[in-house]
Amino acid sequence: MVNKKDEALINAPIIEQNSPEKEKYELFKALYSLYDYVNLLNITDLSIKRLYTSGSGFEIGESHFMDYIKVFAKKHIHPNDIDNYLEYADPINIQERFNDSDKNFSMAYFRARVDGGTYVWKAFIVLKPSFADEGTFLVCIRDVDYETEHILIKNDYVRLFNDLPLAYAVFQLEGESAEELKEINLIYASNRLSKLLKLDFSKILGLNFLSMLREEEKPVIKMFYDAAYNGKRDRRIFYLRHFEKWFCLITDQAASPGRCAVLFEDVTKEHMNTEKLGMEWRTDNIIINCTKLLHSGLPLEIAINEIIKSVGEAVGAERIYIIECTKENCFSETYEWVNNGTESAIDRFQNMAKEDLLNWEAEYPGAFSLVLNDVESIKDGHPKLYDKCKYLNIKSLIEIPIYDEEKLIGYFGALNSFDGIDVDVKELMETISYFLSSEFGRKRLMEELERKSVYDALCGVKNRSAMEMTAKRLKKRHYSVGVLYADANGLKQVNDTQGHEAGDELLKRICSVMKRRFNRENIYRAGGDEFVIIVSKVAKDSFMELCESLKKDFEEAENISVAIGWDWGAVSGNLDKIMKCADTLMYEDKANYYRKNNRRRSSDRC
Protein backbone atom coordinates (compact mmCIF):
# COMPACT_ATOMS: atom_id res chain seq x y z
CA MET A 1 0.00 0.00 0.00
CA VAL A 2 1.32 3.48 -0.95
CA ASN A 3 1.65 5.90 2.03
CA LYS A 4 1.23 9.68 1.84
CA LYS A 5 4.92 10.28 1.34
CA ASP A 6 5.00 7.92 -1.64
CA GLU A 7 1.81 9.46 -2.98
CA ALA A 8 3.47 12.87 -2.91
CA LEU A 9 6.40 11.40 -4.75
CA ILE A 10 4.26 9.78 -7.49
CA ASN A 11 2.18 12.88 -8.06
CA ALA A 12 5.17 15.31 -8.16
CA PRO A 13 5.39 16.90 -11.66
CA ILE A 14 9.15 17.36 -11.58
CA ILE A 15 10.33 14.34 -13.61
CA GLU A 16 9.78 12.96 -17.06
CA GLN A 17 7.34 10.06 -17.50
CA ASN A 18 10.05 7.59 -18.50
CA SER A 19 12.27 8.25 -15.45
CA PRO A 20 12.91 5.26 -13.20
CA GLU A 21 10.24 5.17 -10.48
CA LYS A 22 12.58 3.52 -8.04
CA GLU A 23 15.12 6.35 -8.24
CA LYS A 24 12.40 8.89 -7.51
CA TYR A 25 11.13 6.81 -4.63
CA GLU A 26 14.55 6.52 -2.98
CA LEU A 27 15.22 10.23 -3.38
CA PHE A 28 12.02 11.36 -1.75
CA LYS A 29 12.28 8.75 0.96
CA ALA A 30 15.65 10.26 1.90
CA LEU A 31 14.32 13.81 1.72
CA TYR A 32 11.33 13.07 3.95
CA SER A 33 13.54 11.44 6.55
CA LEU A 34 15.98 14.40 6.64
CA TYR A 35 13.88 17.52 6.21
CA ASP A 36 10.88 18.98 7.98
CA TYR A 37 9.61 20.71 4.86
CA VAL A 38 10.03 19.89 1.17
CA ASN A 39 8.69 22.30 -1.44
CA LEU A 40 8.70 22.23 -5.22
CA LEU A 41 9.98 25.40 -6.98
CA ASN A 42 9.58 26.08 -10.67
CA ILE A 43 11.71 29.07 -11.62
CA THR A 44 10.28 29.16 -15.13
CA ASP A 45 6.78 30.20 -13.96
CA LEU A 46 7.88 31.17 -10.42
CA SER A 47 5.43 28.75 -8.78
CA ILE A 48 5.93 26.93 -5.46
CA LYS A 49 4.09 23.88 -4.12
CA ARG A 50 4.30 22.08 -0.79
CA LEU A 51 5.24 18.39 -1.25
CA TYR A 52 5.77 17.34 2.34
CA THR A 53 5.73 18.67 5.91
CA SER A 54 6.42 16.88 9.14
CA GLY A 55 4.10 19.15 11.07
CA SER A 56 2.37 22.49 11.19
CA GLY A 57 4.03 25.89 10.58
CA PHE A 58 5.78 27.55 7.69
CA GLU A 59 2.58 27.16 5.69
CA ILE A 60 2.41 28.15 2.03
CA GLY A 61 -0.20 30.81 1.63
CA GLU A 62 1.00 32.00 -1.74
CA SER A 63 1.50 29.99 -4.91
CA HIS A 64 3.67 32.69 -6.59
CA PHE A 65 7.25 32.31 -5.40
CA MET A 66 8.14 36.03 -5.19
CA ASP A 67 5.09 36.74 -3.04
CA TYR A 68 5.81 33.65 -0.96
CA ILE A 69 9.39 34.59 -0.01
CA LYS A 70 8.38 38.15 0.94
CA VAL A 71 5.56 36.94 3.20
CA PHE A 72 7.71 34.13 4.60
CA ALA A 73 10.58 36.52 5.39
CA LYS A 74 8.28 38.97 7.15
CA LYS A 75 6.47 36.30 9.23
CA HIS A 76 9.26 33.83 10.02
CA ILE A 77 12.80 35.20 9.44
CA HIS A 78 14.73 37.11 12.09
CA PRO A 79 14.76 40.86 11.20
CA ASN A 80 18.56 40.91 11.05
CA ASP A 81 18.58 38.02 8.55
CA ILE A 82 15.79 39.16 6.21
CA ASP A 83 18.04 40.91 3.65
CA ASN A 84 20.41 37.94 3.44
CA TYR A 85 17.47 35.53 3.16
CA LEU A 86 15.84 37.47 0.32
CA GLU A 87 19.15 37.59 -1.51
CA TYR A 88 19.68 33.84 -1.05
CA ALA A 89 16.08 32.96 -2.12
CA ASP A 90 16.04 35.26 -5.14
CA PRO A 91 15.32 32.98 -8.16
CA ILE A 92 17.93 34.73 -10.32
CA ASN A 93 20.60 34.11 -7.67
CA ILE A 94 19.46 30.48 -7.30
CA GLN A 95 19.84 29.92 -11.03
CA GLU A 96 23.26 31.64 -11.13
CA ARG A 97 24.59 29.58 -8.19
CA PHE A 98 23.87 26.35 -10.03
CA ASN A 99 25.06 27.68 -13.38
CA ASP A 100 28.40 28.79 -11.90
CA SER A 101 29.23 25.42 -10.27
CA ASP A 102 28.82 21.73 -10.88
CA LYS A 103 27.14 21.20 -7.50
CA ASN A 104 23.49 20.13 -7.31
CA PHE A 105 22.68 21.78 -3.98
CA SER A 106 23.26 24.95 -1.96
CA MET A 107 22.70 25.66 1.73
CA ALA A 108 22.46 28.66 4.03
CA TYR A 109 21.53 29.22 7.68
CA PHE A 110 18.94 31.71 8.91
CA ARG A 111 17.16 32.27 12.21
CA ALA A 112 13.47 31.37 11.92
CA ARG A 113 10.63 31.94 14.37
CA VAL A 114 8.98 28.84 15.77
CA ASP A 115 6.06 28.21 18.11
CA GLY A 116 6.28 30.50 21.12
CA GLY A 117 7.88 33.31 19.12
CA THR A 118 11.51 32.29 19.71
CA TYR A 119 14.08 32.17 16.92
CA VAL A 120 16.18 29.09 16.22
CA TRP A 121 18.72 28.39 13.53
CA LYS A 122 17.37 26.50 10.50
CA ALA A 123 19.16 25.13 7.46
CA PHE A 124 17.67 26.24 4.13
CA ILE A 125 18.65 23.93 1.24
CA VAL A 126 18.00 24.18 -2.49
CA LEU A 127 18.39 20.89 -4.46
CA LYS A 128 18.53 20.24 -8.19
CA PRO A 129 17.81 16.55 -8.90
CA SER A 130 19.66 15.17 -11.90
CA PHE A 131 16.42 13.96 -13.49
CA ALA A 132 14.44 17.15 -12.88
CA ASP A 133 13.14 19.43 -15.60
CA GLU A 134 15.12 22.61 -16.41
CA GLY A 135 14.23 25.30 -13.91
CA THR A 136 12.81 22.88 -11.33
CA PHE A 137 14.26 22.74 -7.81
CA LEU A 138 13.45 21.29 -4.41
CA VAL A 139 13.44 23.78 -1.52
CA CYS A 140 13.91 22.15 1.90
CA ILE A 141 14.10 23.29 5.53
CA ARG A 142 15.50 21.38 8.52
CA ASP A 143 16.79 21.87 12.04
CA VAL A 144 20.53 22.17 12.69
CA ASP A 145 22.60 19.94 14.99
CA TYR A 146 24.09 21.13 18.27
CA GLU A 147 27.61 21.69 16.96
CA THR A 148 26.41 23.67 13.96
CA GLU A 149 24.16 25.76 16.17
CA HIS A 150 27.09 26.48 18.49
CA ILE A 151 29.18 27.65 15.54
CA LEU A 152 26.35 29.85 14.25
CA ILE A 153 25.84 31.42 17.68
CA LYS A 154 29.60 32.08 17.81
CA ASN A 155 29.40 33.65 14.37
CA ASP A 156 26.63 35.87 15.71
CA TYR A 157 29.11 37.35 18.13
CA VAL A 158 31.67 37.71 15.36
CA ARG A 159 29.13 39.60 13.27
CA LEU A 160 28.28 41.72 16.29
CA PHE A 161 31.98 42.55 16.67
CA ASN A 162 32.24 43.23 12.94
CA ASP A 163 29.46 45.76 13.17
CA LEU A 164 31.22 47.77 15.86
CA PRO A 165 32.71 51.06 14.54
CA LEU A 166 36.27 49.73 14.82
CA ALA A 167 38.82 48.99 12.10
CA TYR A 168 40.25 45.90 13.75
CA ALA A 169 42.56 43.16 12.43
CA VAL A 170 44.50 40.14 13.62
CA PHE A 171 47.75 39.22 11.85
CA GLN A 172 49.78 35.99 11.92
CA LEU A 173 53.51 36.74 11.68
CA GLU A 174 56.01 34.27 10.25
CA GLY A 175 59.72 34.86 10.89
CA GLU A 176 62.56 34.50 13.38
CA SER A 177 62.93 38.26 13.94
CA ALA A 178 61.50 41.59 12.79
CA GLU A 179 64.26 41.82 10.19
CA GLU A 180 63.61 38.28 8.90
CA LEU A 181 59.81 38.36 8.69
CA LYS A 182 58.55 36.69 5.54
CA GLU A 183 54.81 37.13 5.99
CA ILE A 184 52.32 39.20 7.96
CA ASN A 185 49.13 37.37 7.07
CA LEU A 186 45.74 38.91 7.79
CA ILE A 187 43.66 36.19 9.49
CA TYR A 188 40.78 38.37 10.71
CA ALA A 189 39.46 41.76 9.67
CA SER A 190 36.35 43.72 10.64
CA ASN A 191 34.00 45.20 8.06
CA ARG A 192 35.17 48.68 9.01
CA LEU A 193 38.78 47.79 8.22
CA SER A 194 37.97 46.60 4.69
CA LYS A 195 36.14 49.86 4.04
CA LEU A 196 38.95 51.92 5.56
CA LEU A 197 41.62 50.20 3.44
CA LYS A 198 39.30 50.05 0.41
CA LEU A 199 39.80 46.30 0.05
CA ASP A 200 37.25 43.68 -1.01
CA PHE A 201 36.05 42.04 2.21
CA SER A 202 35.69 38.68 0.49
CA LYS A 203 39.37 38.76 -0.55
CA ILE A 204 40.99 40.45 2.42
CA LEU A 205 41.61 37.34 4.54
CA GLY A 206 44.98 35.73 3.86
CA LEU A 207 46.39 39.02 2.56
CA ASN A 208 50.16 39.39 3.12
CA PHE A 209 50.35 42.84 4.69
CA LEU A 210 54.15 42.76 4.51
CA SER A 211 54.01 43.12 0.70
CA MET A 212 52.21 46.45 1.12
CA LEU A 213 54.88 48.05 3.30
CA ARG A 214 57.76 50.08 1.88
CA GLU A 215 61.38 50.23 2.96
CA GLU A 216 60.81 53.43 4.94
CA GLU A 217 57.92 51.78 6.83
CA LYS A 218 60.10 49.20 8.60
CA PRO A 219 59.18 50.65 12.03
CA VAL A 220 55.64 49.33 11.42
CA ILE A 221 57.04 45.81 11.00
CA LYS A 222 59.04 46.15 14.23
CA MET A 223 55.93 47.39 16.04
CA PHE A 224 53.88 44.37 14.85
CA TYR A 225 56.66 41.93 15.76
CA ASP A 226 57.10 43.35 19.28
CA ALA A 227 53.38 42.98 19.89
CA ALA A 228 53.12 39.45 18.44
CA TYR A 229 56.18 37.90 20.11
CA ASN A 230 57.03 40.18 23.04
CA GLY A 231 53.54 41.17 24.11
CA LYS A 232 54.43 44.85 23.83
CA ARG A 233 51.52 47.25 23.61
CA ASP A 234 52.20 50.33 21.50
CA ARG A 235 50.48 53.30 19.88
CA ARG A 236 52.13 55.22 17.03
CA ILE A 237 51.25 57.28 13.95
CA PHE A 238 52.50 56.29 10.50
CA TYR A 239 51.94 57.27 6.90
CA LEU A 240 51.29 54.11 4.85
CA ARG A 241 52.06 55.05 1.27
CA HIS A 242 50.23 52.04 -0.23
CA PHE A 243 46.93 53.32 1.20
CA GLU A 244 47.88 57.03 0.96
CA LYS A 245 46.67 57.65 4.52
CA TRP A 246 47.99 58.53 7.96
CA PHE A 247 47.07 55.91 10.58
CA CYS A 248 47.19 55.76 14.34
CA LEU A 249 48.07 52.10 14.98
CA ILE A 250 47.39 50.47 18.37
CA THR A 251 49.00 47.03 18.69
CA ASP A 252 48.88 44.19 21.22
CA GLN A 253 49.40 40.45 21.29
CA ALA A 254 46.34 38.48 20.15
CA ALA A 255 45.47 35.16 21.88
CA SER A 256 48.88 33.52 21.38
CA PRO A 257 52.50 34.37 20.46
CA GLY A 258 52.95 35.11 16.78
CA ARG A 259 49.64 36.88 16.45
CA CYS A 260 49.22 40.65 16.56
CA ALA A 261 45.94 42.50 17.12
CA VAL A 262 45.84 45.95 15.52
CA LEU A 263 43.38 48.82 15.71
CA PHE A 264 43.57 51.18 12.70
CA GLU A 265 42.43 54.78 13.09
CA ASP A 266 42.48 57.12 10.09
CA VAL A 267 44.07 60.37 11.30
CA THR A 268 44.88 61.75 7.84
CA LYS A 269 42.68 64.83 8.20
CA GLU A 270 43.98 65.70 11.67
CA HIS A 271 47.58 65.04 10.65
CA MET A 272 47.25 67.09 7.46
CA ASN A 273 45.80 70.00 9.45
CA THR A 274 48.69 69.77 11.90
CA GLU A 275 51.20 69.40 9.08
CA LYS A 276 49.66 72.32 7.24
CA LEU A 277 50.00 74.55 10.28
CA GLY A 278 53.58 73.36 10.78
CA MET A 279 54.38 73.86 7.10
CA GLU A 280 52.90 77.36 7.16
CA TRP A 281 54.91 78.22 10.27
CA ARG A 282 58.18 76.92 8.75
CA THR A 283 57.49 78.72 5.47
CA ASP A 284 56.69 82.00 7.23
CA ASN A 285 59.82 81.65 9.35
CA ILE A 286 62.04 81.34 6.24
CA ILE A 287 60.28 84.32 4.62
CA ILE A 288 60.84 86.45 7.75
CA ASN A 289 64.54 85.52 7.85
CA CYS A 290 64.89 86.41 4.16
CA THR A 291 63.27 89.82 4.67
CA LYS A 292 65.62 90.44 7.58
CA LEU A 293 68.56 89.73 5.27
CA LEU A 294 67.25 92.22 2.71
CA HIS A 295 67.03 94.94 5.35
CA SER A 296 70.13 94.01 7.34
CA GLY A 297 72.33 96.66 5.74
CA LEU A 298 74.31 94.08 3.79
CA PRO A 299 75.13 94.96 0.17
CA LEU A 300 72.25 93.80 -2.01
CA GLU A 301 74.35 91.24 -3.87
CA ILE A 302 75.51 89.57 -0.65
CA ALA A 303 71.97 89.62 0.81
CA ILE A 304 70.45 88.01 -2.27
CA ASN A 305 73.11 85.30 -2.36
CA GLU A 306 72.30 84.48 1.28
CA ILE A 307 68.58 84.43 0.50
CA ILE A 308 68.81 82.00 -2.43
CA LYS A 309 71.08 79.80 -0.32
CA SER A 310 68.45 79.71 2.45
CA VAL A 311 65.70 78.93 -0.06
CA GLY A 312 67.78 76.24 -1.79
CA GLU A 313 68.55 74.44 1.47
CA ALA A 314 64.92 74.72 2.65
CA VAL A 315 63.36 73.26 -0.51
CA GLY A 316 66.10 70.69 -1.17
CA ALA A 317 66.71 71.92 -4.72
CA GLU A 318 69.77 71.21 -6.83
CA ARG A 319 69.91 74.78 -8.12
CA ILE A 320 68.32 78.17 -7.36
CA TYR A 321 68.66 80.94 -9.91
CA ILE A 322 67.65 84.50 -10.65
CA ILE A 323 67.45 85.75 -14.22
CA GLU A 324 67.24 89.51 -14.87
CA CYS A 325 66.27 91.52 -17.91
CA THR A 326 69.49 93.47 -18.45
CA LYS A 327 68.24 95.36 -21.50
CA GLU A 328 65.28 95.22 -23.89
CA ASN A 329 64.44 91.53 -24.55
CA CYS A 330 67.84 90.47 -23.26
CA PHE A 331 68.03 88.23 -20.19
CA SER A 332 71.01 87.03 -18.17
CA GLU A 333 71.33 84.87 -15.08
CA THR A 334 72.71 87.16 -12.37
CA TYR A 335 72.50 85.00 -9.24
CA GLU A 336 72.90 81.27 -8.63
CA TRP A 337 73.09 78.78 -5.76
CA VAL A 338 73.92 75.11 -6.29
CA ASN A 339 74.05 72.30 -3.76
CA ASN A 340 77.05 70.06 -3.30
CA GLY A 341 77.77 68.00 -6.38
CA THR A 342 75.78 70.18 -8.80
CA GLU A 343 77.69 72.00 -11.52
CA SER A 344 77.26 75.75 -11.91
CA ALA A 345 75.37 76.85 -15.02
CA ILE A 346 75.30 80.63 -14.61
CA ASP A 347 77.71 81.26 -17.51
CA ARG A 348 75.46 79.22 -19.78
CA PHE A 349 72.56 81.64 -19.47
CA GLN A 350 73.84 85.04 -20.53
CA ASN A 351 72.46 87.57 -23.04
CA MET A 352 69.50 85.43 -24.04
CA ALA A 353 66.30 86.47 -25.80
CA LYS A 354 63.08 85.64 -23.97
CA GLU A 355 62.25 83.05 -26.63
CA ASP A 356 65.47 81.22 -25.71
CA LEU A 357 64.35 80.86 -22.09
CA LEU A 358 61.72 78.29 -21.07
CA ASN A 359 59.10 80.83 -22.19
CA TRP A 360 56.38 78.74 -20.51
CA GLU A 361 53.90 81.65 -20.59
CA ALA A 362 53.24 80.77 -24.23
CA GLU A 363 52.24 77.23 -23.14
CA TYR A 364 50.22 78.29 -20.09
CA PRO A 365 48.60 81.64 -20.92
CA GLY A 366 47.36 83.46 -17.84
CA ALA A 367 49.39 81.36 -15.37
CA PHE A 368 51.24 83.36 -12.72
CA SER A 369 53.88 80.70 -12.10
CA LEU A 370 55.08 77.35 -13.40
CA VAL A 371 55.10 74.34 -11.04
CA LEU A 372 56.21 70.99 -12.48
CA ASN A 373 56.65 68.26 -9.88
CA ASP A 374 57.48 65.82 -12.66
CA VAL A 375 58.50 67.05 -16.12
CA GLU A 376 57.33 63.73 -17.61
CA SER A 377 53.74 64.80 -16.89
CA ILE A 378 53.87 67.38 -19.74
CA LYS A 379 55.46 65.12 -22.33
CA ASP A 380 52.29 64.67 -24.38
CA GLY A 381 50.45 67.92 -23.63
CA HIS A 382 53.37 70.36 -24.02
CA PRO A 383 56.07 68.68 -26.12
CA LYS A 384 57.96 71.89 -26.93
CA LEU A 385 58.39 72.85 -23.27
CA TYR A 386 59.14 69.20 -22.42
CA ASP A 387 61.97 69.09 -24.97
CA LYS A 388 63.51 72.26 -23.51
CA CYS A 389 63.35 70.83 -20.00
CA LYS A 390 64.92 67.54 -21.06
CA TYR A 391 67.69 69.39 -22.92
CA LEU A 392 68.46 71.34 -19.75
CA ASN A 393 68.25 68.17 -17.60
CA ILE A 394 65.27 69.53 -15.66
CA LYS A 395 63.31 66.86 -13.77
CA SER A 396 61.17 69.17 -11.64
CA LEU A 397 60.80 72.91 -11.67
CA ILE A 398 59.26 75.93 -10.01
CA GLU A 399 59.72 79.27 -11.78
CA ILE A 400 58.17 82.56 -10.66
CA PRO A 401 58.27 85.68 -12.86
CA ILE A 402 59.49 88.92 -11.27
CA TYR A 403 57.61 92.07 -12.21
CA ASP A 404 58.23 95.75 -11.57
CA GLU A 405 55.08 97.82 -12.13
CA GLU A 406 53.64 95.12 -14.43
CA LYS A 407 56.83 94.97 -16.49
CA LEU A 408 58.66 91.62 -16.59
CA ILE A 409 62.16 92.13 -15.18
CA GLY A 410 63.25 88.56 -14.47
CA TYR A 411 62.57 85.07 -13.10
CA PHE A 412 63.16 83.31 -9.78
CA GLY A 413 63.47 79.52 -10.12
CA ALA A 414 64.29 76.25 -8.36
CA LEU A 415 65.29 73.02 -10.10
CA ASN A 416 65.03 69.33 -9.18
CA SER A 417 64.52 67.26 -6.05
CA PHE A 418 62.18 69.40 -3.92
CA ASP A 419 59.54 66.71 -3.42
CA GLY A 420 58.55 65.66 0.10
CA ILE A 421 59.99 68.69 1.93
CA ASP A 422 58.27 70.33 4.89
CA VAL A 423 57.72 73.84 3.51
CA ASP A 424 55.25 75.27 1.00
CA VAL A 425 57.69 75.74 -1.89
CA LYS A 426 55.31 77.65 -4.15
CA GLU A 427 54.19 80.02 -1.38
CA LEU A 428 57.79 80.56 -0.29
CA MET A 429 59.11 81.36 -3.75
CA GLU A 430 56.18 83.54 -4.78
CA THR A 431 56.59 85.62 -1.62
CA ILE A 432 60.37 85.90 -2.02
CA SER A 433 59.87 86.89 -5.67
CA TYR A 434 57.62 89.73 -4.48
CA PHE A 435 60.37 91.03 -2.19
CA LEU A 436 62.95 90.60 -4.93
CA SER A 437 60.71 92.60 -7.24
CA SER A 438 60.66 95.43 -4.72
CA GLU A 439 64.42 95.33 -4.23
CA PHE A 440 65.21 95.12 -7.95
CA GLY A 441 62.75 97.94 -8.60
CA ARG A 442 64.43 100.05 -5.92
CA LYS A 443 67.84 99.14 -7.33
CA ARG A 444 66.79 100.16 -10.83
CA LEU A 445 65.36 103.42 -9.51
CA MET A 446 68.60 104.19 -7.67
CA GLU A 447 70.62 103.32 -10.76
CA GLU A 448 68.41 105.58 -12.84
CA LEU A 449 68.78 108.41 -10.34
CA GLU A 450 72.53 107.86 -10.24
CA ARG A 451 72.66 107.73 -14.01
CA LYS A 452 70.80 110.99 -14.27
CA SER A 453 73.02 112.58 -11.64
CA VAL A 454 76.27 111.68 -13.41
CA TYR A 455 75.27 111.26 -17.07
CA ASP A 456 74.23 113.83 -19.61
CA ALA A 457 70.74 112.99 -20.84
CA LEU A 458 71.36 114.23 -24.39
CA CYS A 459 74.74 112.75 -25.24
CA GLY A 460 74.86 109.69 -22.98
CA VAL A 461 78.28 110.62 -21.55
CA LYS A 462 79.06 111.80 -18.02
CA ASN A 463 78.16 115.34 -16.95
CA ARG A 464 80.11 118.18 -15.35
CA SER A 465 79.23 117.04 -11.82
CA ALA A 466 80.76 113.62 -12.52
CA MET A 467 83.83 115.32 -14.01
CA GLU A 468 84.36 117.36 -10.85
CA MET A 469 84.07 114.22 -8.67
CA THR A 470 86.60 112.42 -10.85
CA ALA A 471 88.98 115.37 -10.71
CA LYS A 472 88.69 115.60 -6.92
CA ARG A 473 89.46 111.87 -6.56
CA LEU A 474 92.45 111.95 -8.93
CA LYS A 475 94.03 114.94 -7.19
CA LYS A 476 94.49 112.72 -4.13
CA ARG A 477 96.29 110.04 -6.13
CA HIS A 478 99.61 109.78 -7.90
CA TYR A 479 98.47 108.26 -11.18
CA SER A 480 99.52 109.28 -14.62
CA VAL A 481 96.69 111.14 -16.35
CA GLY A 482 95.82 112.46 -19.77
CA VAL A 483 93.26 115.25 -20.44
CA LEU A 484 91.67 116.30 -23.74
CA TYR A 485 89.36 119.27 -24.28
CA ALA A 486 87.00 119.38 -27.27
CA ASP A 487 84.67 122.21 -28.31
CA ALA A 488 82.20 122.17 -31.20
CA ASN A 489 82.80 124.82 -33.85
CA GLY A 490 79.81 126.59 -35.35
CA LEU A 491 77.17 125.23 -32.98
CA LYS A 492 75.38 128.58 -32.65
CA GLN A 493 75.12 128.96 -36.39
CA VAL A 494 73.56 125.47 -36.64
CA ASN A 495 71.07 126.32 -33.87
CA ASP A 496 70.16 129.63 -35.52
CA THR A 497 69.85 128.35 -39.08
CA GLN A 498 68.67 124.74 -38.66
CA GLY A 499 67.11 124.73 -35.21
CA HIS A 500 68.12 123.39 -31.81
CA GLU A 501 67.22 119.81 -32.73
CA ALA A 502 69.89 119.93 -35.44
CA GLY A 503 72.31 121.38 -32.87
CA ASP A 504 71.53 118.51 -30.48
CA GLU A 505 72.14 116.00 -33.25
CA LEU A 506 75.52 117.63 -33.94
CA LEU A 507 76.55 117.22 -30.29
CA LYS A 508 75.49 113.54 -30.32
CA ARG A 509 77.49 112.91 -33.48
CA ILE A 510 80.56 114.51 -31.87
CA CYS A 511 80.15 112.13 -28.87
CA SER A 512 79.82 109.14 -31.22
CA VAL A 513 83.15 110.00 -32.81
CA MET A 514 84.85 110.35 -29.40
CA LYS A 515 83.46 106.96 -28.28
CA ARG A 516 85.35 105.29 -31.13
CA ARG A 517 88.62 106.04 -29.35
CA PHE A 518 87.69 106.50 -25.68
CA ASN A 519 85.46 104.70 -23.20
CA ARG A 520 82.15 106.41 -22.45
CA GLU A 521 83.09 106.43 -18.75
CA ASN A 522 86.03 108.76 -19.54
CA ILE A 523 84.06 111.33 -21.57
CA TYR A 524 82.38 114.32 -19.87
CA ARG A 525 80.13 117.07 -21.19
CA ALA A 526 81.49 120.06 -19.27
CA GLY A 527 79.10 122.63 -20.75
CA GLY A 528 76.96 123.39 -23.81
CA ASP A 529 79.37 122.51 -26.63
CA GLU A 530 82.42 121.70 -24.52
CA PHE A 531 83.63 118.14 -23.76
CA VAL A 532 86.50 116.86 -21.59
CA ILE A 533 88.16 113.45 -21.71
CA ILE A 534 90.09 112.33 -18.60
CA VAL A 535 92.01 109.04 -18.66
CA SER A 536 94.04 107.88 -15.63
CA LYS A 537 96.77 105.24 -15.44
CA VAL A 538 97.66 105.69 -19.10
CA ALA A 539 101.08 105.85 -20.76
CA LYS A 540 101.99 109.10 -22.46
CA ASP A 541 102.64 107.58 -25.88
CA SER A 542 99.36 105.66 -25.82
CA PHE A 543 97.37 108.73 -24.83
CA MET A 544 99.01 110.97 -27.40
CA GLU A 545 98.38 108.39 -30.11
CA LEU A 546 94.67 108.20 -29.17
CA CYS A 547 94.39 111.98 -29.29
CA GLU A 548 96.01 112.20 -32.72
CA SER A 549 93.67 109.48 -33.97
CA LEU A 550 90.65 111.36 -32.61
CA LYS A 551 91.78 114.57 -34.26
CA LYS A 552 92.03 112.75 -37.57
CA ASP A 553 88.57 111.22 -37.05
CA PHE A 554 87.10 114.70 -36.55
CA GLU A 555 88.84 116.03 -39.64
CA GLU A 556 87.43 113.18 -41.72
CA ALA A 557 83.91 113.37 -40.26
CA GLU A 558 81.34 114.98 -42.53
CA ASN A 559 79.81 118.30 -41.42
CA ILE A 560 81.64 118.24 -38.06
CA SER A 561 84.23 120.75 -36.88
CA VAL A 562 85.73 120.42 -33.42
CA ALA A 563 88.57 122.31 -31.73
CA ILE A 564 90.66 120.07 -29.46
CA GLY A 565 93.66 120.33 -27.20
CA TRP A 566 95.32 117.78 -24.93
CA ASP A 567 98.04 117.33 -22.35
CA TRP A 568 99.47 114.50 -20.23
CA GLY A 569 101.04 114.44 -16.77
CA ALA A 570 102.89 111.81 -14.75
CA VAL A 571 101.18 112.77 -11.46
CA SER A 572 97.43 113.29 -11.20
CA GLY A 573 97.97 115.52 -8.18
CA ASN A 574 98.80 118.23 -10.78
CA LEU A 575 95.49 117.73 -12.57
CA ASP A 576 94.46 121.38 -12.44
CA LYS A 577 97.63 122.39 -14.28
CA ILE A 578 97.21 119.60 -16.86
CA MET A 579 93.56 120.53 -17.49
CA LYS A 580 94.42 124.22 -17.86
CA CYS A 581 97.11 123.42 -20.41
CA ALA A 582 94.76 121.22 -22.43
CA ASP A 583 92.04 123.89 -22.29
CA THR A 584 94.47 126.55 -23.53
CA LEU A 585 95.56 124.39 -26.46
CA MET A 586 91.90 123.76 -27.34
CA TYR A 587 91.19 127.53 -27.44
CA GLU A 588 94.22 128.08 -29.63
CA ASP A 589 92.86 125.46 -32.02
CA LYS A 590 89.46 127.14 -31.97
CA ALA A 591 91.07 130.55 -32.62
CA ASN A 592 92.81 129.09 -35.66
CA TYR A 593 89.45 127.78 -36.87
CA TYR A 594 87.83 131.21 -36.67
CA ARG A 595 90.79 132.96 -38.28
CA LYS A 596 90.77 130.41 -41.04
CA ASN A 597 87.07 130.85 -41.60
CA ASN A 598 87.17 134.66 -41.12
CA ARG A 599 84.57 134.57 -38.34
CA ARG A 600 84.38 136.10 -34.91
CA ARG A 601 84.80 133.51 -32.18
CA SER A 602 82.68 135.33 -29.66
CA SER A 603 79.66 135.14 -31.90
CA ASP A 604 79.87 131.32 -31.97
CA ARG A 605 80.11 130.76 -28.24
CA CYS A 606 76.95 129.36 -26.64
Choose one word for the global shape: rod-shaped
Bin the helical content.
40-55%
Which architecture name of the largest domain does CATH use?
2-Layer Sandwich
| Number of H- or I-type helical stretches | 18
| Rg of Cα set | 49 Å
Low-pLDDT runs: 1-19, 601-606
Largest sheet report: 5 strands, antiparallel
Fourth-tier CATH superfamily name of the largest domain? GAF domain
Q: Total number of β-strand segments?
A: 20
Q: Can you tell me the CATH class of the largest domain?
A: Alpha Beta
Q: Report the portion of residues in β strands.
A: 15-25%
CATH topology-level fold name of the largest domain? Beta-Lactamase
Number of domains: 4
Rounded average pLDDT: 85
Distance between the termini: 153 Å
Helix/strand/pairing category: alpha+beta
Taking strands numbered 1, 2, ... along the chain, how are they ordered across the largest sheet? 2-1-5-4-3
